[in-house]
Amino acid sequence: FARISPSLLQELAALQNIKGSELLCPSGPLFFAVVTSSSGRVVHTPLTVVAAGIVKWLELYSGVLTVRIMLSWFPNIPWDRQPLSAIRDMCDPYLNLFRNIIPPIRNALDVSPILAFMVIGTLMSILRVGVGYRS
């Protein structure tokens, strides 16, 4: 068994006596909360760690999505070669969800990525509030 330091035991005991004012962002029964201990350390619950990871993944995915959309402006790009085919395979299933909802304007201008970015942005905002994320 690993030895637990007395200071860690004191912090855990202090966390058991949490008051509402010490919660940075309460959302539900402490499953999705960021808690400050008396020493000023921030303690994350497992769900906040997962939510922070999802936010980072969505930030990365929105960057790849931006590259995909910008590359679609060039008609002579060989989409069958790597890494372009990987970018296309990653982004097109998500974009096709919105292309079915919003058809292209005059068969030329595809505005569905706007809705796709709005959904990603909304998800990131919700998760950032729940995590107490500070950029």
TrEMBL record:
InterPro entries found in the cross-reference section: CCB3/YggT (IPR003425)
Domain of life, per lineage: Eukaryota
Keywords on record: Membrane, Transmembrane, Transmembrane helix
GO BP annotations, alphabetical order: chloroplast fission
Record field: transmembrane: 111-131
GO cellular component: membrane
Full protein name: YggT family protein
Organism: Pinus taeda
